[in-house]
Amino acid sequence: MTQNDRPAIAALSTLILLQGVMLSALYAGVAPHPPVSTPLFGMAPFIAASVSAAFCAIFLGPLSSRAGRILSVVAVFLALVSFGPQKYFDAQFALIWPAVLSGQIAAITVFLGIVSTSKSQQTVRA
């Protein structure tokens, strides 16, 4: 793990924990929690895919390898389904805002790390 990877690893870990806690709240029936049914996909398989992408990105190095960067972006986009800006219009936003804001800060951290790494790699090539 490089020093540059640390913020992205922390952000991906945040997304993993947020999704795990929200899924646990669903199973425990503790409000607020995600809806029990979702129209287009199953909640648990979707969160499993999102968490798996984040774990794989961490193991590969979220900023230090091409595969790690791709999986980081995939993990962030999947997490933003649960914590993205659309949640500002959710009826339960007053109850879920800490998770939403934490998820968005984590997503921005990963994106900034990827952009920063991409720019520095372009400078090295030139």
Q: What sequence of helices (H) and strands (E) makes up the elements?
A: HHHH
Distance between the termini: 26 Å
Helical stretch tally: 4
Give the strand content: under 5%
- The average pLDDT value, as a whole number, equals 88
Radius of gyration, in Å, reads 15 Å
Q: Which assembly state applies to the chains in this document?
A: single chain
Write a brief caption for the model.
The protein is mainly alpha-helical. The chain contains 4 helices and no strands. It has one domain.
Features:
single chain; mainly alpha; 0% strand
Question: Would you give an account of this structure?
Answer:
The protein is an all-alpha fold and 126 residues long. The chain has one domain (5-125). Helix content is 74%, strand content 0%. It contains 4 helices and no strands. Helix 1 packs antiparallel against helix 2, helix 1 packs parallel to helix 3 and helix 3 runs antiparallel to helix 4. It is elongated. The relative contact order is 0.18. The mean pLDDT is 88.
